[in-house]
Design goal:
The chain is of the alpha/beta class and 334 residues long. The chain folds into 2 domains: 14-246, Aspartate Aminotransferase, domain 2 (3-Layer(aba) Sandwich), CATH 3.40.640; 250-333, Aspartate Aminotransferase, domain 1 (Alpha-Beta Complex), CATH 3.90.1150. The chain contains 15 helices and 13 strands. The protein has helices at 14-21, 34-47, 58-69, 83-87, 91-96, 112-118, 139-142, 148-160, 172-179, 183-186, 213-225, 234-246, 251-267, 287-295, 319-333; strands spanning 2-3, 51-55, 75-79, 99-103, 129-135, 164-169, 192-196, 207-211, 271-272, 279-283, 299-300, 302-305, 308-312. Bound molecules: pyridoxal-5'-phosphate.
């Protein structure tokens, strides 16, 4: 089976499983897990922040950041395709008590003027905007890498107007590898940054949220409140450490394969969106029907809109998988 539905479908490699099985662990809620502590230190250093907390998911890392950086009744500015607005079960409003204001970007990337115009002056009628979140890479945008100068300009604007900035870096290492710009630079002006180990990095579970030391003390309490305190989570942190060490540079292979897939589909007459990293959106007349037909050829992808398929390359898809996918498309499209 060739599973292109998401980069979350990867299974731990034998080397990763070995590291997990042998990880020193303790009760992390009691502060005793040395592997989690090591992961948090490594993640904070990579992000250029003082501290980090390990979370069960990217959604929880985002929710903790939003709770941490806002008060109930505040407004959070986000690109319309952003993950919390679309796919986090309204956690920001239900739990953090904020209103998300979706803003139209281009392929997930916000323009400075759009954000500037959306920040309203103080007025009792308005929810005060106190947080801007950016998604790097943008999932619904098509794996788009945020241009660095845009991150810098948006963060400067936000800070000048009294907003804080959270960088949802679920796939930020794809952006790091595609741009050649390290994480601590990409996240330099963000108050908090989160990233996931369970996507292109190939670990089974886990994300981190990074920020100032004091902020992470509060973040840890919010994580507990949400039920995200984990016990011998060093088993998972070991997988995350292994992923950081061994699975970052190879993301370039996923990007090259996504490019090859795009070119192959274009050669078959299909239109595809521009593809910066590992997320490819392809356009077909009837996406659910094409996805179902591809399944009969053992190729799995998601119909994310009536005329759009999403195909994601990752650790468990090799060159032969890309070739077989193109053969399946050719068979299905006639
Ligand atoms: C951009 C982005 N942020 C956050 C998340 C949430 O991650 P998780 O599935 O671990 O909750 C995802 C998941 O796909 C994502 O694409």
């Amino acid at each position: 089976m060739i599973d292109l539905r998401s980069d979350t479908v990867t299974r731990p490699t034998p080397a990763m499983r070995h590291i997990m099985a042998n990880a020193p662990v303790g009760d992390d809620v009691l502060g005793d897990d040395p592997t989690v502590k090591r992961l948090e230190a490594v993640a904070a250093e990579r992000a250029g922040k003082e501290a980090a907390i390990f979370t069960p998911s990217g959604s929880m890392a985002n929710l903790i950041a939003i709770t941490l950086l806002t008060r109930k009744g505040d407004e959070v500015l986000q690109e319309v395709g952003s993950h919390p607005f679309n796919y986090e079960a309204a956690g920001a409003s239900a739990v953090a008590g904020v209103q998300i204001r979706p803003l139209q970007g281009e392929r997930g990337i916000l323009a400075v003027d759009t954000v500037g115009a959306a920040i309203r002056p103080p007025d009792d009628h308005f929810a005060p905007a106190t947080l801007l979140t950016l998604e790097d890479t943008s999932n619904r945008g098509g794996g788009t890498v945020y241009p660095l100068e845009r991150i810098d300009a948006l963060a400067a604007l936000a800070h000048e107007r009294g907003l804080r900035v959270h960088l949802d870096g679920a796939r930020v290492f794809n952006a790091v590898v595609a741009s050649g710009i390290p994480l601590d630079r990409r996240a330099r002006d963000a108050d908090t940054v989160s990233f996931c180990f369970s996507k292109g990095l190939g670990a089974p579970v886990g994300s981190v949220l990074c920020g100032d030391r004091d902020a992470m003390v509060t973040a840890r309490r919010i994580r507990k409140m949400l039920g995200g305190g984990m016990r011998q989570s060093g088993i998972l942190a070991a997988a995350a450490l292994h992923a950081l060490e061994h699975h970052v540079d190879r993301l370039a292979d996923d990007h090259a394969r996504a490019q090859r897939l795009a070119e192959g589909l274009n050669a078959l007459g299909l239109a595809t969106d521009p593809c910066d990293t590992n997320l490819l959106y392809a356009h077909v007349p009837d996406a659910p029907a094409v996805a179902a037909a591809l399944r009969d050829h053992d190729v799995h992808c998601l119909a994310v809109a009536p005329g759009t398929l999403r195909l994601v390359t990752h650790l468990d898809v090799d060159d032969a998988g890309i070739a077989a996918t193109l053969v399946a498309f050719e068979a299905v499209l006639g």
